[in-house]
Amino acid sequence: MGVCGRGLGGVEFHATDWPDALSAESFKSLGLLAIVVQQGHRIDEGDHMGICVPIRDMKDTAKFSALVEAADEPVTVTKNGYGKFVVMPIESYDLLLDEVARAKLLAIVARGEKDYAAGEYVGGASFTQDLREKYGL
Question: Has this prediction a pTM greater than 0.90?
Answer without folding.
Answer: no
